[in-house]
């Protein structure tokens, strides 16, 4: 599984991994198992991101949502 996409979003996920690892596991599981294949999360400053799962490759892609 490869993580690509918005650098700021990836940094937010790294912070989540350090501070709330169970929440990161939830996000990944939700992205992989939901019918839409994505989950929304946000940074400390309320910037919103999408974590998308690409079933064909197994990769996770982070995208920034506009405010």
Strand order of the largest sheet: 1-4-3-2
**What kind of sheet is the major sheet?**
4 strands, mixed
Unreliable segments of 5+ consecutive residues: none
Per DSSP E runs of 2 or more residues, the count of β-strands stands at 4
* Tally of contiguous helical segments: 2
Structural class: alpha+beta
How would you state the average pLDDT, rounded? 95
Report the helical percentage.
25-40%
Distance between the termini: 29 Å
Radius of gyration: 11 Å
Q: Write the element-wise H/E pattern from the N-terminal end onward.
A: EHHEEE
Strand percentage, roughly?
25-35%
Shape: globular
Describe this structure in words.
The protein has 67 residues and is α+β, with helices and mostly antiparallel strands. Helix content is 39%, strand content 31%. It has helices at residues 7-19, 21-33, and strands at residues 3-5, 38-42, 48-54, 59-64. Strands 1-4-3-2 form a four-stranded mixed β-sheet. β2 and β3 (48-54) form a beta hairpin. α1 crosses α2. The chain is globular, with a radius of gyration of 11 Å. The termini are far apart. The model has no long low-confidence stretch (mean pLDDT 95).
């Amino acid at each position: 599984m490869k993580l690509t996409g918005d650098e700021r979003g990836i940094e937010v996920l790294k912070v989540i991994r350090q501070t709330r690892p169970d929440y990161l596991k939830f996000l990944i599981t939700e992205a992989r198992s939901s019918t839409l294949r994505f989950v929304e999360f946000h940074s400390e400053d309320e910037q919103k991101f999408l974590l998308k799962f690409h079933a064909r490759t197994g990769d996770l892609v982070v995208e920034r949502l506009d405010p």
